[in-house]
Specification:
With 423 residues, the chain is an alpha/beta fold. The chain has 2 domains: 35-226 and 401-421, 3-Layer(aba) Sandwich (Rossmann fold), CATH 3.40.50.2000; 245-399, Glycogen Phosphorylase B (Rossmann fold, 3-Layer(aba) Sandwich), CATH 3.40.50.2000. 39% of the residues lie in helices and 15% in strands. It has 13 helices and 14 strands. The protein has helices spanning 53-67, 104-127, 142-151, 175-193, 204-212, 258-264, 283-293, 307-316, 331-338, 352-356, 370-379, 382-400, 402-421; strands spanning 35-39, 45-46, 71-78, 88-92, 136-139, 157-161, 198-201, 220-222, 245-249, 273-277, 299-303, 319-321, 343-346, 360-363. The strands form 2 sheets. Strands 1, 2, 3, 4, 5, 6, 7 and 8 form an 8-stranded parallel beta sheet that branches. The longest helix is centred in the first third of the chain and has 24 residues, at 104-127.
Length: 423
C-alpha cells in the first residue's frame, strides 16, 4: 500500500487474453480467457469456516477473477458443496489434515502434509484432464509451491508470500517457531522466490524484505489482501452508541498479547466493554484473569460466531483492538476498516501501511500504559473516532476493494506472462 498522496494501484494494465481492453468485466468467463490455477494450503476448508487467512484470500481471488471473466481451477481442501462463482472449478486436495495446529513443530508437519496433498492433487487434475492446463499458476503455500515450480517450469507462475520470516524488533515468536520460519524462508528464497515470475507482497515491509533478499524490484508486486467492500459495510447512520465496546477478533493466544488487552480493561472507563471473538489455548487463562480481576461485566468471550453476527459486531465497535506483533498482514484490520471502524495497534513496522493511512490509534508497545492510553484517547473523543472511521473506509474502498485488487492482480499476471515469454 501507499501513502494517501499516491493511488492505491496503477491504471488497468493492458488487456489479458479474453478480457476486453479497458477492463470491461463479465460474470460469464470467456472460453479463450485466462485460466488461472489457484492453490491453497490443504489444511483448511474452502470457503474458510475457521478463519484461515490463505483460504479466505484464494476464495476472494476466485470471486475477483470470475467477475473479470476468467476461469479458475482452485485446488483446496473442500467439504460440502459450496456455491461457486461462474467459471470456478474446485479440485479437492483430499488432505488428511483437519485443523491448523498451533505448536511450531506440529504446524510444520501440517504444512508439509497439506502442501504435499495439494501438489499431488494438482498433478493428478492436470494429467487426468480434470483441470485445463493453466495460463497462469498462482501459488500460495510453500511446500506445494516447491513441488509445482519444479513440475511446471515453463508455465508463468505467481507466488503470494503469506509467511515472511521473523525479521525486525519486537516480534513475539518463540525460539523454535522463529527457527522453523527462518528455515522455511531460506528454502522459499531458493526454490520459490527465484523460480517464479512474480512475487506478491501483501505489505510494504514484505516488499522491502524480498528486494533485500535479491528479488528484482520489478518482479515484486505489492498487492494487499482483498476485501468485499459490498459485504463489509459501515453501520447505517443513526443515534450515537450508548453501549461502547472494543472488539478483538482472532485466535486467543497468549503470544498475541490478548491477556495484556484483558488486563488493560481494568483501567478502562467503566462504560467501555471488550468483546473477544475466537477460540484458542489462552481461553482458560483469560477466563481466570477475568475472574481474578473482577472483569466479568467488562470482558465477554463470544467464541466463534456466524458471519452475519460478526459483521454486526464489527459495525458497532468503537474500535478493533489487536495488540499482537505476530501478524504479517492481519485480515481483521482490513475487515474492520471496510466497516468504517478504526484500529488500535502497537507501533511496529508490521503495521506501517495501516498507520500511514491514518485510521489507527497507535501506541508504544514498550510503554507501561501505552495500550491503556490509546484506548482512552479514542474512547473519550467521539469526533476522532468518526474521523478515523471515515479514513478507514476510504482506505478500504481505495486500496483493498475487489476492483482495486483486480486491477493490480491482472497487472501481476500480465507481468508473469511477459516475463515467461521473454525467456
Amino acid at each position: 500500500m501507499r501513502s494517501n498522496s499516491e493511488p492505491a494501484v496503477g491504471p488497468l494494465p493492458p488487456a489479458l487474453p479474453g478480457l476486453p481492453a479497458g477492463g470491461a468485466s463479465s460474470t460469464v468467463p470467456s472460453s479463450d480467457g485466462v485460466h488461472v490455477l489457484l492453490t491453497s494450503t490443504g489444511m483448511v476448508d474452502i470457503p474458510s469456516r475457521t478463519g484461515g487467512a490463505v483460504e479466505s484470500y484464494v476464495w476472494d481471488l476466485a470471486h475477483i477473477l470470475s467477475d473479470a471473466g476468467h476461469s479458475i481451477t482452485l485446488v483446496s481442501k473442500l467439504r460440502g458443496a459450496p456455491e461457486l462463482p461462474p467459471g470456478v472449478r474446485v479440485v479437492s486436495s483430499r488432505s488428511m489434515v483437519d485443523r491448523f495446529p498451533l505448536p511450531a513443530f506440529s504446524s510444520a508437519v501440517a504444512h508439509a502434509l497439506g502442501g504435499t496433498f495439494t501438489a499431488l492433487a494438482t498433478r493428478r487434475a492436470i494429467r487426468g484432464g480434470e483441470a485445463r492446463t493453466p495460463t497462469v499458476v498462482h501459488l500460495n503455500e510453500e511446500v506445494s509451491s516447491m513441488f509445482l515450480c519444479r513440475a511446471y517450469r515453463d508455465l508463468p507462475k505467481v507466488f503470494t508470500l503469506h509467511n515472511p520470516p521473523p525479521v525486525g524488533p519486537g516480534l513475539s515468536f518463540g525460539p523454535l517457531e522463529s527457527q522453523v520460519r527462518w528455515i522455511n524462508s531460506a528454502m522459499s528464497r531458493r526454490w520459490i522466490w527465484r523460480k517464479v515470475d512474480v512475487v506478491i507482497a501483501l505489505s510494504s515491509w514484505i516488499r522491502k524484505h524480498l528486494v533485500a533478499n535479491g528479488i528484482p524490484p520489478e518482479r515484486v508486486h505489492q498487492i494487499p489482501l482483498p476485501i468485499d467492500t459490498q459485504e463489509y459495510l459501515p453501520r447505517r447512520a443513526g443515534p450515537e452508541q450508548t453501549d461502547p465496546y472494543l472488539l478483538y477478533v482472532g485466535r486467543l493466544d497468549a503470544r498475541k498479547n490478548v491477556l495484556r488487552l484483558v488486563a488493560a480493561m481494568r483501567e478502562a472507563n467503566p462504560a467501555l466493554r471488550l468483546e473477544l471473538v475466537g477460540h484458542g489455548p489462552a481461553e482458560g487463562p483469560i477466563r481466570e484473569l477475568i475472574r481474578r480481576r473482577g472483569l466479568e461485566r467488562k470482558v465477554s468471550i463470544l467464541g466463534s460466531i456466524p458471519q452475519p453476527d460478526l459483521l454486526e459486531r464489527f459495525r458497532g465497535a468503537t474500535a478493533l483492538c489487536l495488540p499482537s506483533t505476530l501478524e504479517a498482514y492481519p485480515r481483521v484490520v482490513v475487515e474492520a476498516a471496510a466497516c468504517g471502524v478504526p484500529a488500535i495497534l502497537p507501533r511496529t513496522f508490521l503495521y506501517t501501511d495501516f498507520i500511514d493511512h491514518g485510521f489507527v490509534e497507535s501506541y508504544d508497545i514498550g510503554a507501561r500504559t501505552g495500550l491503556e492510553s490509546a484506548i482512552e484517547v479514542l474512547r473519550s473523543d467521539p469526533g476522532r473516532q468518526r474521523e478515523l472511521g471515515r479514513r478507514a473506509r476510504r482506505f478500504a474502498e481505495g486500496s483493498v476493494s475487489f476492483p482495486s485488487v483486480r486491477s493490480a492482480l491482472e497487472g501481476a499476471y500480465r507481468a508473469a506472462l511477459d516475463s515467461r515469454a521473454a525467456r
